[in-house]
Specification:
triose-phosphate isomerase activity, Triosephosphate_isomerase, Triosephosphate isomerase, TrioseP_Isoase_bac/euk, about 260 residues, globular, about 15% strand, Aldolase_TIM, TIM Barrel, alpha/beta
Length: about 260
């Protein structure tokens, strides 16, 4: 059941792939050529930052958005190796992923730091953030999933105003399902998405909550995409490994189109 207030949004997180610019251009071209101009689904790809400027040209005049995988919250300064929201906007980015579990766990990013990035993205106005939340396997086994996700929402979205909230996409990514081949069942994913929607309704009101896109991420593939996307509170997917194979990614986009068509 698709909610009429929300589009289905499929974004590909390429992470630190592919190895060369030539491969990145080829993959982007294949995705560009495979997405219908009139697709009812929103689509974006999020390649490594070193490829962004070139891929902006590849995607010109296509409906596909271009996302970065991170930004630094300060507008400029002595922050070696970092990029600002304004820089990303200047080279054509439309989206930015914030708070991915790999950055939380491998690089120690906190909810407070992710929150600073969120406000930096929103202050830029043209850069739409995708904010990731999700629990580890130990937390799920301990029955802490909802508590952990609520805490991440409260910290990562602190200070977010109701009129800003619909600009933010949330991505629920159970850490134990990222790159492991394990996937939350549609019912497990829907339970958390429904909790997130309820939290949003309590924070911003039901009308605003109904407009906020909540993606699912975690080993989304062509063979499980449709069942996941058919859940009432799952509004798309943040796709990892499958986004590196154009045929697989396009099949996930087609699954979203099929769900939207009923």
């Amino acid at each position: 059941m698709v909610h009429p207030s929300r589009p289905s949004f499929i974004a590909g997180n390429w992470k630190m792939n592919p190895a060369t610019l030539e491969e990145a251009v080829t993959l982007a071209q294949q995705v560009r050529d495979g997405v219908r101009l009139d697709s009812p689904a929103r689509v974006a790809i999020c390649p490594p930052s070193i490829y962004l400027e070139r891929l902006d040209r590849v995607l010109e005049n296509s409906p596909i958005g271009l996302g970065a995988q991170n930004l630094y919250p300060e507008p400029k300064g002595a922050y070696t190796g970092e990029v600002s929201a304004a820089m990303l906007n200047a080279i054509g980015c439309t989206h930015v992923i914030l708070g991915h579990s790999e950055r939380r766990t491998l690089l120690g990013e906190t909810d407070a730091f992710i929150n600073r990035k969120l406000h930096a993205a929103l202050a830029n106005q043209a850069l739409l953030p995708i904010v990731c939340v999700g629990e580890t396997l130990d937390q799920r086994d301990a029955g802490q999933t909802l508590e952990v996700v609520k805490g991440q929402l409260e910290g990562s979205l602190a200070g977010l105003e109701a009129d800003q909230a619909p600009q933010v996409t949330l991505a629920y990514e159970p850490v134990w399902a990222i790159g492991t081949g394990r996937t939350a069942t549609p019912e497990q994913a829907q339970e958390v998405h429904a909790m997130i929607r309820d939290w949003l309704a309590q924070r911003f009101g039901a009308a605003i909550a109904a407009r906020i896109v909540i993606q699912y991420g975690g080993s989304v593939k062509p063979d499980n995409a449709r069942d996941l996307l058919a859940q009432p509170d799952i509004d798309g997917a943040l796709v990892g490994g499958a986004s590196l194979v154009a045929e697989d990614f396009l099949k996930i986009v087609e699954a979203a189109e099929a769900v939207l068509a009923g």
